[in-house]
């Protein structure tokens, strides 16, 4: 016997079985695999983040997440009337967005939170091969925008061209399955970068030159450590939200996804 969940008919909401609603949030076997892989990614990235020489393995991805971070600053800056003068990435995985105008109390936190948002979106898309393919076009557009704003930085050109080549190569492996796991890795890296960088700058090292320090000066209350922890918590929420959205939105088994003719490379 089914238990039914409903609102009054006057609200115009259809009846829906509780079991069906619960099943949407319950991960399938394929989805559980992706969740495990995402957790493994997070652990591996955290371990090798500062290990000498080994950290070079994730070096290009670290620079890419810096690009997401700087793009967050730039995007909110444009929305608040700022003029973007340049976006730069340097070999130390740092970055700088130079702008005139804008609203500082919006543009300053947009870096960490923007990269977390992008990471969560990529994680959600990684639960579906078709979505993973579509999001690569979005990434391509993002690459072009970043190249335009950072066109004086040769490292940015090399990084994004290499990343584009890697994505194209993964597109042809197992009809996009490899691309799916690559998108998941980039998404996890983006969220983890935000969390780790906030901890590294504000909790462990207590570096003064950070977005949180500048934000604390603009707002005029609370220390930068508090703002950093708040942004860290929000980033964790984004990470969890990406997984939950992926579980709910993409329920097709992997076998059906691989049989999909959408941009089929076979």
In short:
This is Peptidase M50B-like-domain-containing protein. Helix content is 67%, strand content 6%. It has 266 residues and is mainly alpha-helical.
Structural summary, described in words:
The protein is mainly alpha-helical and 266 residues long. It is 67% helix and 6% strand. The chain is globular, with a radius of gyration of 20 Å.
Relevant terms:
266 residues, mainly alpha, two-stranded antiparallel ribbon, two-stranded antiparallel sheet, 4 strands, globular, disordered N terminus
Head-to-tail CA distance between termini: 45 Å
Helical content band: 55-70%
Oligomer: single chain
How many β-strand runs?
A: 4
Lay out the secondary structure.
Layout: E1 4-5, E2 16-17, H1 18-25, H2 29-48, H3 59-79, E3 83-89, E4 95-100, H4 104-107, H5 110-125, H6 129-149, H7 154-171, H8 177-204, H9 211-219, H10 224-249, H11 254-259
Antiparallel strand pairs: 1-2, 3-4
């Amino acid at each position: 016997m089914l238990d039914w969940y409903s609102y009054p008919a006057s609200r115009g909401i259809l009846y829906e079985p509780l079991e069906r609603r619960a099943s949407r949030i319950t991960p399938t076997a394929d989805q559980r695999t992706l969740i495990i892989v995402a957790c493994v990614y997070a652990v591996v990235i955290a371990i090798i983040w500062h290990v000498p020489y080994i950290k070079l393995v994730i070096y290009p991805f670290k620079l890419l997440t810096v690009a997401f971070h700087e793009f967050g600053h730039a995007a909110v800056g444009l929305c608040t009337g700022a003029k973007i003068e340049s976006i730069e990435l340097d070999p130390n995985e740092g970055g700088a967005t130079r702008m005139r105008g804008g609203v500082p109390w919006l543009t300053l936190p947009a870096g960490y939170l923007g990269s977390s948002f992008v990471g969560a979106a990529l994680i959600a898309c990684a639960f579906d091969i078709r979505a993973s393919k579509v999001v690569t076009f979005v990434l391509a557009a993002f690459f072009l925008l970043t190249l335009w704003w950072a066109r004086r930085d040769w490292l940015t050109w090399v990084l994004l061209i290499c990343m584009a080549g890697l994505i194209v190569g993964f597109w042809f492996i197992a009809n996009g399955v490899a691309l799916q796991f690559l998108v998941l890795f980039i998404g996890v890296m983006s969220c983890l970068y935000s969390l780790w960088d906030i901890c590294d700058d504000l909790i462990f090292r207590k570096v003064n030159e950070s977005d949180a320090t500048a934000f604390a000066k603009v707002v005029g209350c609370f220390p930068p450590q508090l703002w950093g922890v708040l942004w860290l918590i929000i980033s964790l929420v984004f990470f969890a939200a990406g997984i939950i959205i992926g579980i709910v939105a993409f329920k097709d088994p992997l076998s059906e996804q691989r049989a999909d003719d959408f941009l089929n490379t076979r």
